[in-house]
Design goal:
Layout: H1 5-15, E1 35-42, E2 47-54, E3 60-62, E4 68-69, E5 74-79, E6 85-90, E7 95-101, E8 108-116, E9 121-126, E10 132-137, E11 142-148, E12 155-157, E13 163-164, E14 169-174, E15 180-185, E16 190-197, E17 200-203, E18 209-210, E19 215-220, E20 226-231, E21 236-242, E22 248-250, E23 256-257, E24 262-267, E25 273-278, E26 283-289, E27 296-298, E28 304-306, E29 311-316, E30 322-327, E31 332-338, E32 345-352, E33 359-362
Antiparallel strand pairs: 1-2, 1-33, 2-3, 2-4, 5-6, 6-7, 7-8, 9-10, 10-11, 11-12, 11-13, 14-15, 15-16, 16-17, 16-18, 19-20, 20-21, 21-22, 21-23, 24-25, 25-26, 26-27, 26-28, 29-30, 30-31, 31-32
Length: about 375
């Protein structure tokens, strides 16, 4: 196992403190105040870009050594809740990379060998406790599930993995309880639901559940009562009520219209607002959510906010102050500040990546 790169970078940062990323040592703190780290997958460069984010100002600084060498076509990244490990799905390599995170610098060191997945692992997600990692394999129509060793971060496939999850799976989301996994089947215009028991997946009766055309993203409300689905081909957002057994039913009053070709969904910290990144119209649609019915309503004052070209991924930052938006056409990762009272977004700072990014994850 290779575990030397992070410690070497730390020594270099001590000697070269003026280099980008070396002025802020420590994931939880820096010379100017608290900070955290963002990691982004850049498939065409086979790399992982890393940036330190100041918690107060939001300023993003490249970490020394970034981009870090990854596997073949890294497509999705997720950070373990302990902030010790970074996991990366390598879509062309058909495997998963584990990286140790240096707690002082934020630099990452890959731990070899990589863990085999099925064909074309493109999306990762993890339960809130960091006990299980789920990898969605697009070409084979399966999900690989692994238990996580809390000490080393090592992955072990659970019994029966990989599990069939339906044709053309492209996105997934876990219920906050961890009891259900929701999978978007893009060519079926449907969502498949699976009960989760110690990492083992079992299909829910009624699968698959019809939604709009081209579902590219799914997200579960913090209440666990509603599933939101971005229908890219229809340019709409569907809301499905979630029954006790995990089955889905379309909420009356939805789907609602979004910008063109929504590709990603995120909620504000309170769960009162939902946002879609619209790849075709290069903007974000902002909605308030009726807490009882789940129906979204476009904000009247700034319901649509422009982004860089072709936004494909939006995620809430760990500070809860803003969203991080990947715009592939512009090769940028931008911050959108959230007004906690109105839910409105305003553009803030951004960084340019060497290669277009597809996914990002942040430490706490």
């Amino acid at each position: 196992m290779i575990r030397t790169r992070g410690s070497l970078l730390f020594l270099l940062c001590l000697a070269l403190a003026t280099l980008p990323g070396c002025g802020h040592l420590g994931i939880g703190s820096s010379s100017s105040g608290a900070s955290h780290v963002m990691y982004a997958a850049t498939p065409t460069g086979n790399g992982i870009a890393a940036y330190r984010i100041d918690n107060d100002s939001g300023n993003m600084t490249t970490i020394f050594g970034s981009p870090f060498a990854g596997g073949s076509s890294p497509a999705s990244v997720v950070v373990h809740p302990s902030n010790k490990f970074l996991y990366v799905a390598n879509q062309s390599g058909n495997d998963i990379s584990l990286f140790d995170i240096d707690s002082s610098t934020g630099a990452v060191t890959e731990v070899l060998p990589r863990t085999p997945a099925d064909v074309s692992p493109a999306v990762l997600t993890m339960d809130s406790g960091g006990s299980f990692l789920f990898a969605l394999n697009e070409s084979s129509g399966t999900a690989s599930v692994y238990s996580i060793d809390s000490g080393s971060g090592a992955l072990s496939a659970v019994a029966g993995s990989p599990f069939p999850v339906g044709q053309s799976p492209v996105a997934m989301a876990l219920a906050p309880s961890g009891k259900f996994l929701f999978v978007a089947n893009v060519n079926l215009a449907a969502v498949s639901v699976f009960a989760v028991n110690a990492g083992v997946l079992s299909p829910v009766a009624g699968n698959p559940f019809p939604v709009g055309h081209g579902p590219l993203a799914v997200a579960v409300a913090s209440s666990g009562n509603f599933l939101f689905v971005a229908n890219s081909f229809d340019s709409t957002l569907s809301v499905m009520s979630i029954a006790a057994d995990g089955s889905l039913a379309l909420v009356s009053g939805t789907p609602v219209t979004t910008g063109t070709n929504p590709a990603s969904i995120a909620f504000d910290p309170t769960g009162a607002y939902v946002y879609t990144a619209n790849e075709g119209s290069s903007n974000i649609s902002s909605f308030s959510i009726d807490s009882s019915t789940g129906v979204p309503t476009l904000l009247t004052t700034s319901g649509t906010v422009s982004t860089g070209a072709n936004p494909v991924f939006v995620a809430l930052d760990s500070t809860g102050k803003y969203f991080l938006v990947i715009s592939q056409g512009a090769k940028t990762i931008a911050e959108m500040k959230i007004d906690p009272t109105t839910g409105e977004l305003t553009a803030s700072t951004s960084v340019t990546t060497d290669q277009p990014a597809t996914s990002l994850a942040v430490t706490k």
